[in-house]
Every structure is written in structure tokens, then in C-alpha cells.
Amino acid sequence: MPPTPNPPLHSQTPADLLTPSLAFSPQMLWLLLLTLPCLGGSVPGNPEPGVGRELVGIVGGCDVSARRYPWQVSLRFYSMEKGLWEHICGGSLIHPEWVLTAAHCLEPEELEACAFRVQVGQLRLYEDDQPTKVVEIVRHPRYNKSLSAQGGADIALLKLDAPVPLSELVHPVSLPPASLDVPSGKTCWVTGWGDIGRGEPLPWPLSLREVRVKVRSNVLCNQIYCRRFPSNHTEPSEQLIKDDMLCAGDGNHGSCLGDTGGPLVCRWNCTWVQVGVVSWGTFCGHSDVPGVYARVMSYMSWIHQHVRPFPGAAGAFT
């Protein structure tokens, strides 16, 4: 398997979130990190301008109105250093009580559901924050934490502690039938907060951004990755892009590190349908390398094992 220049993980590890002034042993610090968000602490207020800008990004995109993507959510993890629930990944509301995101956003597995929060209905990060508690994490059983996103099955569900009130700013996205085939060349959209280019943080006020991308065939995508990132363990015929993955965009338009977990949506029969979950990729804003997404169609039966279909999820507020 070839090395991936940009790993699909958060730009900060749990150890990075610890303030160095704390005089605890590493074991005590780790235990504190795992349990602190679960002890019922108060939700922090809005941060100062510039806080949290380094974690996510959309390359080549534009600012949008929140009502265009009312299913977009921000996945949060408590930063002891900054004293706030910090954005780490994107996600999508697929039911008033359920969020779809990437499994690798929820590592390490030792973290409990109460270590995370979900913010819905937000256009600018940290503006009028009211994060919702997560009470259950359902990772796909085939997800391999040692392989991370590149191993496939990079998909997970989060159950919220209560249904979120729906409005023109908060509304579930439609999910596709398992039989849906997204053709190469189909125009779709990906959304998120953060870097607008490699090393270029999203400027304040940290507004949600969108970018239009075209779907690329898995065969072509596999050829691109094998050619650009060869290794001693990569044969020309090796399938790096698995059947449960979908490719879209190029180096100049697409998702970036930390957008992971967010939705890739396409317009079908006047309805927005989520076909992908931002999973992994390579250099943001460089060359013709597309981003790689978890193919939602491959996991519809698994999703329905846990989440009842929500008949109102038709992208009504567009």
C-alpha cells in the first residue's frame, strides 16, 4: 500500500490537546482526556476570532448560506488547551437523532460517545454554539483502525441524546437507494469549514464553504493514485480505490484535511442526495488527484439496521 501524503486524521492528536503545564503522568493525562467531557462540564462560549482555524478546509470553494445545506454538521471534541468544543470533522444529519460521519474521525476507539458533541444549523463556526450530546457511536464493523480510511468502511453513525428541532437551517439530507449508480462526470457538491488551500487557513469569520466537483471513475482514480504514489508494495493492478469508495474532484477543487466526515451531495430528481462521506486523499490544491469518499450506496443496508428511514429527508429547504 502506498504512503498517503496527507493522512485522513485530525490535525491534532489527543496528546496535542493537552496543556503542557499539567503535572500529571501520561497515564493520568490520558485517563483525564477520556473522562473529562463525560463529567457533565458546561459548554464553553464562543472563542476569540481565529481560534480553531487550522483544522479543516475546502479548496477552490465559495461561502454559502446555511439554508443551502441544512444537513451539514460540525463534529466537536473538547480541547483542554483552548477550553472549548473544537471542530474536528464534518458530518451530515440523516435523521433528527442521527448523524453520518467518517469512522476515522472517532479514533481512538477508547473514546466514549460522551467525548463528542455535534453542532447543527451553523453557518459560521463557534457562532452561538449549542452543541448536542452524542450518546452512541456505531462504527462500521469492517472498519480497520490499523488501515484507517484507506482500508475502506470509513463510515460511522452518531446517535444524539435527543431529536434536534427541524427548521430551514436544520434538516436531514436524503439518502440514496443502494442501487444508485453515480456516473463519471456527474457534478456534485462538497461542503466544510477550514483551509482554502494547502497551508492557507480559512479566514475569519470561519464561514461554511462549498465547492463543485465532478465524480471520477474508480478505475481512473485508482490509476492516478498508483501512478503518483508508487511503492515497493504496489503493483500496477493493485486496487487502492476499493469498491466501497467513490472519487470526485481534482487537486484544485475539492476537500482538504479535516473536511473528513462531511457530505458529498448530488442533485437527483430535484432532491439533494448524499452519495459520499469525505474520507481521505492527498495534497490539497495540487495536481489532478481526486478526493476519496466512502460510497454511501454500499452501506445503505447497514445504515437502515440502525436508523429508521426519515420520510421528511428530501432536502426540502433548498
Automatic annotation (TrEMBL):
It comes from the Eukaryota. It holds the Pfam family Trypsin. Residues 58-308 form the Peptidase S1 domain. The keyword Protease applies. SUPFAM superfamilies: Trypsin-like serine proteases. Coiled coil: none annotated. One of its GO terms (molecular function) is serine-type endopeptidase activity. GO terms for biological process: proteolysis. Keywords: Disulfide bond, Glycoprotein, Hydrolase, Protease, Serine protease, Signal, Zymogen. InterPro entries: Peptidase_S1_PA, Peptidase_S1_PA_chymotrypsin, Peptidase_S1A, Ser/Thr_Proteases_Immune/Dev, Trypsin_dom, TRYPSIN_HIS. Residues 1-40 form the signal peptide. SMART domains: Tryp_SPc (SM00020). Belongs to the peptidase S1 family. CLIP subfamily. PANTHER family: TRYPTASE-RELATED. This is Peptidase S1 domain-containing protein. It comes from Papio anubis (Olive baboon). The lineage of its organism: Eukaryota, Metazoa, Chordata, Craniata, Vertebrata.
